[in-house]
Structures are given as C-alpha cells and as structure tokens.
Write a structure and sequence with these properties.
This protein is of the alpha/beta class and 201 residues long. Strands 3-2-1-4-5-7-6 form a 7-stranded mixed β-sheet, sandwiched between helices. Helix 5 links the parallel strand 4 and strand 5. It is globular and about 40 Å long. The protein binds S-adenosylmethionine. The site of S-adenosylmethionine has 20 residues, from strand 2.
C-alpha cells in the first residue's frame, strides 16, 4: 500500500502539477457550472486541492477529501477560490460518508491511485454519497503515464471495459471522450467519462 503521507512529506509527488487538471478545465468549459447541481461537489483524493479550487471558482460549494494530513494542511493555505472546504478522511471508509450527500463527484487520479482491489469499494463509495441522479465525472488513465518501474503502480491503468464494469452496478455512462487538453506526457492516455447514478446505494 502506498504511504501517501510519507510521499508528500518527502516531496515524492510527481502527480502534483501546481494547477488544476487540464481535462477538468475542458470539462468545465463544456458543461458550465449548472450541470454540477446545487452542490456540494466532492473531490476524493484531492491532494493540494487545485481541482477543488477550479470548481469552487464557479461558485459551487466543493469539499475535497484526502487521507494525507500534509495535503490537507497545505491545501488550506491557498487563497480561497469560493466556498471550498477540505477534510482529512478516507473516502473508502463507509463511516466517512454517513449522512453525507453530494450532487456530483469529480474524480482525478484517485481511482488510479488506490489499489485495483479497492475499485469496487470506490464505485460503491461514490454511489453511496451521491444524491439520486447525481453524477460522477472523472478523468481516468487508460494506460499508466509512467509505467516501467520494478514495483507496479500507482498509478494503475484501467480499460474502458473495466471502468464500465466497476461503475455499472450503480451508474449509467452518459458521455465519454478522450480530452484534447492534458498535462504534457498524458496526451491521449486519459479518458473523460460522465456517469449518472441510477441505483440506490
Ligand atoms: C496520485 S495523488 C493525486 C492527488 C490529486 N488528485 C492531484 O491530482 O494532485 C492521489 C491522492 O489520493 C489520496 N488518497 C488515496 N487513497 C485515498 C482514500 N482512500 N481516501 C482519500 N484520499 C485518498 C492520496 O493521499 C493522494 O493525495
């Protein structure tokens, strides 16, 4: 299992780009603010919160959750962009989502970061904290962007078939495309998908 806190503490954070994910900005340009519902919107595994603040700048209430104290402490030090908050917590822990409902979820580099054996738990957690009809928008790695190490992942890649299978117990996919905007090195390796929650969880 990855020790995320230690990775932040030692600066071993190749995913940290100092800006919101380009595919999120592409999605925001396409969907606008209204599609995200009344909020709050959840960003699981938000790291230093650049995506949280990009969403919050649209005047949507946003909650970022991450299990790294370092990440949460540093996310809170950025100037507020809107009504964003940060929480230290484990998104996969069912206790974390008791009595919580979100109108939408933005997924970016959390699904690919957790161990693949936890992916069903991720889909269940997402369904469990979304309002009925709420949606999960995510950018997924179809191939890991830095393969080749001795120790596999993270990030762990996924196929479209696997992503659909993991989410299908609770979600229907309503749109998907390969984003035009990407961090250097991730071009053509990512896939944006929008899922709407259709089943109770
Ligand atoms: C690869 S990093 C990506 C961070 C951020 N999304 C970004 O792009 O900068 C994965 C993040 O997920 C967090 N994380 C991993 N498992 C988690 C879980 N079960 N609950 C909440 N956060 C988690 C880690 O602490 C880490 O900040």
């Amino acid at each position: 299992m990855t020790d995320w806190e230690s990775r932040y503490q030692t600066g071993d954070t190749p995913w940290e780009k100092g800006q919101a994910a380009p595919p999120l900005l592409e999605l925001l340009g396409k969907l606008g603010a209204d599609a995200w519902g009344d909020g709050p919107v959840l960003v699981p595994g938000c790291g230093l919160g650049h995506d949280v603040r990009a969403l919050a700048a649209l005047e949507i209430p946003v909650v970022g959750v991450d299990l790294s104290p370092f990440a949460m402490e540093h996310a809170r030090q950025f100037p507020p962009a809107g009504k964003e908050t940060y929480e230290l917590g484990n998104f996969l822990n069912p206790e974390w989502r008791v009595d919580r409902k979100f109108s939408a979820i933005w997924e970016h580099t959390c699904f690919c970061a957790i161990d693949p054996t936890e992916r069903d738990s991720y889909a269940e957690a997402a369904a469990g904290c979304l309002t009925d009809g709420g949606f999960l928008a995510g950018v997924f790695f179809l191939t890991p962007f830095d393969p080749g190490g001795e120790v596999p992942g993270p990030p762990f890649g996924a196929t479209i078939e696997e992503i659909d299978a993991r989410f299908s117990p609770w979600f229907e996919r309503i749109d998907a495309w390969v984003p035009c905007a990407a961090y250097p090195g991730r071009e053509g390796k990512e896939w944006i998908a929008l899922f709407r929650k259709v089943a109770k969880a």
